[in-house]
Amino acid sequence: MLAAQYPVLPVIVPLLSAPIAALMPNRSLAWIMASLVSALVFATAVALTVIVSAQGMISYEVGGWPAPYGIEVRVDSFSVVMLLVISGASTLALISGKASIDAQIPSDRQPLFFAAWLLALAAYSGIAVAGDAFNIFVFMEISSLAGYVLIANGPDRRALPATFKYLVMGTIGASFYLIGVGLAYMMTGTLNIADLHARLGDVPYLRPILLSAAFVTIGLAVKAAVFPLHVWMPNAYARAPSAVAVFLSACSTKAAVYVMLRFDFMIFGGAFAHHDVQFSTVLMSLALLGMLIGSAVAIYERDVKRMLGYSSVGQIGYILLGASMISLGGVSAGVIHMFNHAMIKGGLFLAMGALVLRLGGGTLDDLKGAGRTMPWTMGAFVLLGLSLIGMPLTAGFISKWYLVQAALDLGTLGIVLIAAILISSLMAVVYIWRVVEVAYFQSPQAGASKHQEAPLMMLVPLWAVVLANVYFGLDPSIPVDLATNAANILLEHAK
Amino acid sequence: MEILGLYNYWVFAILLLIGLYAVITKPNFTKKLIGLNIFQAAIFLLYISMDKVDGGTAPIIPHGAAKDIIYSNPVPQVLILTAIVVGISTTALGLALVVRIREAYGTIEEDKVISMDRDQ
């Protein structure tokens, strides 16, 4: 039965297709192959979502060896949220990216480029479904290595130092995670996440575990670009090829947040007293700083892609703020925002890809008058911007609504949090408005009249994301149900 | 004496910090990679140290061996072999990037690259 193999397909299929894509004789065949594989992974993710919603968690024994001795693939509601985000972002980025990839990457290198893309897709999916702490490390490194290759292909030389910085910080983050896993293994003798959770209760001497929790959390915070460990991220997104920015902005930091929540709730949460207090004190303060400072820096940024990168620092803050409330409402709000923010930021980078393709650059000066020459692209940018701000009827509003509701349960502290959310949202109004002002109220630069609307193959996926934003703003039941289930799983283990 | 007995872990901590210090302070991209390698080597040492069992021998079971032999734990060695492969790939990719940076900027000093980008 193929259905029994669904949990491993999102990893196996792109992993095996990657070398084949590298051997493709020309760029179009490689592109078609990558897009088909990515769409297949998305279809599998949808099928898994249906199965998991109906019958709960699926555990799959790789090679028939039972856990905890064999490698376990585990798919629950939290995994499928991540899988949907990863495969959806990859598919939309590939389908819409044909024109911008052709413009930014030499055709003879494209088959290799798509091979790296498929490896990244396989590894991100692997992070989402792995039930084993060391497998997560390996997948994290494969995804990062493939990601470095993708970013280094950026259109100008500034991509290279940006990639180098990402490589150094990413490796340090992953190494910290590896130290943490090693210390946990030292005390428990197991690497399986469920088994780690079960055995930590019997560990008599907890100091190595405390150290392990610190290493894992900080290491993943580097990978997740949590303020103040975010310095690699704005440049990595801004200098990458446009299509890569769509893919990575939607899933690279979220994958790290995903692993962080799994570890801190499912493994360390139940192991020692007060872990929840420590986790929420550290993460909540970092989240608040990120929300305020990330958004404030975004206001002063003239390169719109870098601006979106700094805005992501703030948005990661929202996700962690929800998680650090350690309540059902808070954690589900965080997971909902993981889903919604991937959709919003992926869409915004998609719009930027179209603008860069036609205007030749992504600074505010390049965007002058774009509202007139490229009305459909700018229209989508504005609607996604409204979603980022959190306007009612958009997905961004749903995130903030759940976040504020969860904050209200916290009493006085909650009022402070709501104030921070409001201030950060107002700053988002300012930085989105700066783009709107330049695009709609300034006349195009000389010679810009020949600029035309983006190709249809970019506009259709872009507007699909916009409509998805409105749809999930009107009827958020799918992400909310999944997120509530995911939060239940996380909190159940944390007790 | 317990402090001395745990000397591998002291070496691990010191190497880790030396590596991290080099990564943070050296402006030269190649030296940063060397620092990163020292940093990773420290972690290999941590894993190799934890698999040692007192009086344990290499985890190879010869045909017809006695039942009461104590073996060291082979799992951390396998894990760290994987991590070494990951480390090599990262170093190779990093060095390739350094070559590309040198071709594009004519220098591999981080401060010069940053100031060239600022002037652009």
CATH topology of chain B: Helix Hairpins
Helices and strands of chain B: which structural class?
mainly alpha
Distance from first to last alpha carbon of chain B: 59 Å
The most extensive interface between chains reads:
A-B, 26 and 33 residues
Instruction: Categorize the overall geometry of chain A.
Output: globular
Q: Regarding quaternary structure, how should these chains be classified? A: heterodimer
- How many domains make up the 3D coordinates of chain B? 1
Name of the CATH class of chain B: Mainly Alpha
Termini separation of chain A: 37 Å
Q: Give the total of beta strands of chain A.
A: 2
Please work out how many helical segments of chain B DSSP would assign: 5
Membrane topology (chain B): Multi-pass membrane protein
Main location (chain B): membrane
Keywords (chain B): Cell membrane, Membrane, Transmembrane, Transmembrane helix
InterPro entries (chain B): CPA3_antiporter_subunitC, NUOK/Mnh_C1-like
Can you walk me through this structure?
The complex is a heterodimer of chains A (495) and B (120). Chain A starts with 8 loop residues before the first helix and ends with a helix. With 495 residues, chain A is an all-alpha fold. Chain A has a two-stranded antiparallel ribbon. Chain A has helices at 9-23, 27-55, 77-104, 110-129, 133-152, 159-188, 193-200, 207-223, 233-239, 242-267, 275-299, 304-324, 328-359, 370-373, 375-389, 395-408, 412-441, 456-474, 477-494; strands at 58-61, 72-75. Chain B has 120 residues and is mainly alpha-helical. Chain B has a single domain, classed as Helix Hairpins (Orthogonal Bundle), CATH 1.10.287. Chain B is built from five helices and no strands. The N and C termini of chain B lie far apart (59 Å). The A-B interface holds A 134, 137-138, 141, 145, 148-149, 152, 157-158, 160-161, 163-164, 167-168, 171-172, 174-175, 178-179, 182, 185-186, 191 and B 16, 20, 23, 29, 32, 36, 39-40, 43, 46-47, 50, 75-76, 79, 82-83, 86, 89-90, 93-94, 97-98, 100-101, 104-105, 110, 113-114, 117, 120. Chain B: InterPro entries: CPA3_antiporter_subunitC (IPR050601), NUOK/Mnh_C1-like (IPR039428).
